[in-house]
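idk why but the lab printer keeps eating my pages so im just putting this in chat instead. protein + adenosine monophosphate:
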Amino acid sequence: MVERVLLVGGGGREHAIARAVAADCELFGCASNQNPGIAALTSEFRIVDETAPEEILEMAVDVDATLAVIGPESALEAGVADRLDEAGVYTFGPRAAEARIETDKAYQREFMRAEAISGCPDFETFETADAAADYVRQYDADVAVKPRGLTGGKGVRVTGDQVTQSEAVKYVREAGFDEWVVEERLVGEEFTIQAFVADGTVESTPAVQDHKRAYDGDEGPNTGGMGSYSAAGRTLPFMTDADYEAAVRILEETVEALPAYKGVLYGQFMLTADGPKVVEFNARFGDPEAMNTLPALETPLIEILTAARDEDSLPDVTFSGAATVCKYAVPDGYPTNPSAGTRIEVDENAAGEALLFYASVEARETGLYTTGSRAYAVVGNGAEISEAEQEAETALGSSSESIRVRHDIGTAESIQQRIDHMNRLREWRVARRGPTRQGQEDLNTDTDTQPHATRDGDC
Ligand code: AMP
Ligand code: GLY
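predcted complex ->
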């Protein structure tokens, strides 16, 4: 039987999902925006409100879908998986109750505390902005302040990194949210591990490092993610096998505590000198990380999806072993003042060996135009990260002047800085504490003397 798969979502992540299944099924798509890449791979692509379960169910029924895959967190939060599951369309994505692990940051931290999940930072939750602001003012170390709900990755502020303590207090008072999480600032290198999850089993995928900040050298405001890389094995150059395994164990502990979880569980970790800590969980593939992971997946994605639906054990998930580098092309001014409506030239053939994924572009008769969001991404791959980086850059070569790219992602210099940063943190810990794993608090918060300050330059 040929599966009839309905894919929900229209970004770069969903284009990567579409590319990974299209050859093995009849694919249908729906999203709030048109995506020319997904449209080309689907039998039908419909514009729907991604947060309207009934509209999506209507499409699933119309196309006689045998299973569905959900890309964006907004759809999960809106209960799209619940509605499709109830109607008998198995959906690879958690129901709203399990998706709270991403959609409700206060729940996420309370859950970690209650279930004694490893890697949880010190935190408190607040129901008024005033109470959260007062707590930030009296906290004697650096903090991250987070609105409770979804903010597209742009709601968090970190003191000693992006803002001063008094700026964070002002931000909490003025941002317009009531409910907040305030937690200790974690210091280290961030990485992502995405895992396929069904029936309590967890199949992890290679680690990826995203680049959230808008400009080269990790400067500027946070974005949805400017690009990412993965290495030939499962780890990244600044981490050990033990670090990777510790992070996977955290994902496994989380799934043990959420036995009904299905779909992708995405762990965003900070590799501190004391091992991985949880920055957040997401209830779906990462964007851009899906564009690194799915093209390197050797196991057919359709086999993972159908095994999950049919309550078979998930197949062993294998990867090609290629290193990958993904670079997003974003409109000038993104994310604070993006120039929407600018015509861009995207030459799919010029990408060569690299892959091109569309994200947010508007197709008019006269060509493709930017919206306010990330426009498209290229993904290079190779035996080494440097080879993949070169391939991505070559693919970008012909891109328009009105778009911006972080050219430092995946370069030898940038990777070396991350290795050096982790080495300094580890050496500093050994010098200060001895080689045993002890409490992390001082290490994370003593920013006057921490070696990472020389890299960040602003704390
Ligand atoms: P989130 O929206 O939770 O993904 O947070 C966005 C970004 O804020 C993360 O990718 C981190 O760079 C940063 N961040 C969040 N929480 C912390 C923390 N406790 N310590 C340091 N940085 C953090
Ligand atoms: N790469 C960040 C995210 O998908 O949320």
